[in-house]
Amino acid sequence: MSDAKPLAGQTALVTGASRGIGAATAIALAEAGAHVILTARKVKALEEVEDAIHAKGGTSTIAPIDLTEADAISRLASAIAGRWDKLDILVISGAYLPDLTPLTQIDPKQFNQAIMTNVVATQALLTGFDPLLRNADDARVIGLTSSVGAGPRPYWSAYGSTKAAFDNLLESYGAEVEKLSGVRVAIIDPGATRTEMRARAYPGENPESVKEPEVVAQRLVALAQAGFETGHRERVD
């Protein structure tokens, strides 16, 4: 490891890496020296992020999958375990935002998609990659949450309830492995950030009035470099 590449020799997996905070974080991790595995559904978008990483001298591998498909995560974990013997950093950035509606008007199909993406896939990721995380000397798991998970808000119940469950899964896992391994778990609320998801939730907002995804990405990489104790939670303003 060098000052220029503090994460050299480390492997990171970023979900939701095709755009927004996930893409920015993947690029920043690669700039810091990590080999980054990029996961999302859209192949072309992943290839564009990989091109950006390579243009900056970094290395990456794309793994296009739908995290909600049956056995997709277990297959991904098996494939990665066949190439790498450890996973140093897991960033869970991928999420699904249903339409904002009163609780009584939640679309069942969208709600199910949110549950599968934000909750079920999170449990599968932690389960599938637990052995590789435990093989690392100082593994870090960073989950991106939302303030509506901790503070219920009108019209946000479909998304907020899945993020509350997301937080619970991460915190439970962190407590379970804290004394048995070097795995540490943190939850980060990115706050108002210029993403497609934010634009959907606040269509009348001037995107220039909120921070760029790169601001959040730099904070996540700084945390990955410095390390943290399980239970660490912060908001990036």
Topology:
Layout: E1 11-15, H1 20-31, E2 35-40, H2 43-55, E3 59-64, H3 72-81, E4 89-92, H4 108-135, E5 140-144, H5 147-150, H6 157-177, E6 184-189, H7 196-201, H8 213-226, E7 232-235
Percentage of residues assigned to helices: 40-55%
Q: Compute the CA-based radius of gyration.
A: 17 Å
Q: Classify the secondary structure makeup into a structural class.
A: alpha/beta
Could you tell me the number of beta strands?
A: 7
Strand order of the largest sheet: 3-2-1-4-5-6-7
**Would you list the SSEs in sequence order as H and E?**
EHEHEHEHEHHEHHE
Give me the number of helical elements. Answer: 8
**N-end to C-end Cα span:** 30 Å
Written description of the protein model:
The chain has helices spanning 20-31, 43-55, 72-81, 108-135, 147-150, 157-177, 196-201, 213-226, and strands at residues 11-15, 35-40, 59-64, 89-92, 140-144, 184-189, 232-235. With 237 residues, it is α/β, with parallel strands linked by helices. The protein has a single domain, classed as Rossmann fold (3-Layer(aba) Sandwich). The protein has a seven-stranded parallel β-sheet with strand order 3-2-1-4-5-6-7, sandwiched between helices. α1 (20-31) packs parallel to α2 (43-55) and α3 packs parallel to α4 (108-135). The two termini are 30 Å apart.
